[in-house]
Amino acid sequence: MLIDLVTIFPEACQGYLDSSIVGRARRRGLIQVELVDPRRWAGGRHRTVDDRPYGGGPGMVLAAPPLAGAIDWCLTRSARPRLLLTDARGRRLDHPWVRELAACPHLIIVCGHYEGIDERIAELYHPERVSLGEFVLSGGELVALAIVDAVARLQPGALGCAESALQESFADGLTYDHPCYTRPEEFRELRVPEPLLSGDHAAIAAWRAAQRRRIGGER
Fold first, then answer.
1. What residue segments make up the domains of the chain, in order of their start?
2. pLDDT in tens, 79-122
3. Deepest of 33, 55, 59, 169, by most Cβ within 10 A of its Cβ?
4. CATH of 2-153, one of 3.40.50.1360, 3.10.450.50, 3.90.550.10, 3.40.1280.10
């Protein structure tokens, strides 16, 4: 799977992409992530990628020419790319959508920043707008990394255990994962629930399912 992440702050993404499950998936060749900086297509000595908005107002807007150059380059990299734009107005990311995206051979994720991007990018390329929720972030890099992490986990072999992805939150319709415990058996007078210590796999599965239903009912 190829993921092109269009961002003016590639250094903000690199550490996360090199770490944990995402980093392991990249090293195993399960996903390929390219950080694409629009400054490569910006003119002038300073490679400026933003400007003041027409009509006035606070903040800066990512300009269309460098973004278009970056997107055009990404679009040449495969026959079936899927273009996403991080945008507070976008569709809320959820597990069914993540599963759909994880099956795509090529994702292009454009990170919004500042007051937004020149609207002509949306008019020209018709990206799918994606959001993590109704709150404001400084930039779309966190949204893009969330997408990369979520789709990387669903690549065969990424978790090292075929059942792990199937047992996680949202994977089977019960919505939330069950509580987890590890050693010691007792900590500050709180004990691990007895079913988890029983060695009875049916009892453990029943307890976990009941806990997931309980947690789902509390939300």
1. 2-153, 174-218
2. 999 999 999 999 999 999 999 999 999 999 999 988 899 999 99
3. 33
4. 3.40.1280.10
Task: Note the pTM of the prediction, 2 decimals.
Answer: 0.86
Q: Which of 192, 197, 6 is nearest to 83 (CA)?
A: 6
Residue type present at position 173: G
User: Do 60 and 116 contact (CB within 8 A), yes or no?
Assistant: no
Q: For the domain 174-218, what is the CATH superfamily, name and number?
A: tRNA(m1g37)methyltransferase, domain 2 (1.10.1270.20)
Cα 113 to Cα 63, 64, 85, 140, 169: the distances in Å are 11, 13, 11, 6, 30
CA distance 133 to 168: 21
Helices (H) and strands (E) in the chain, counts: 9, 9
Spatial CA neighbour of 10 closest among 113, 125, 133 = 113
Which amino acid type is present at position 8? I
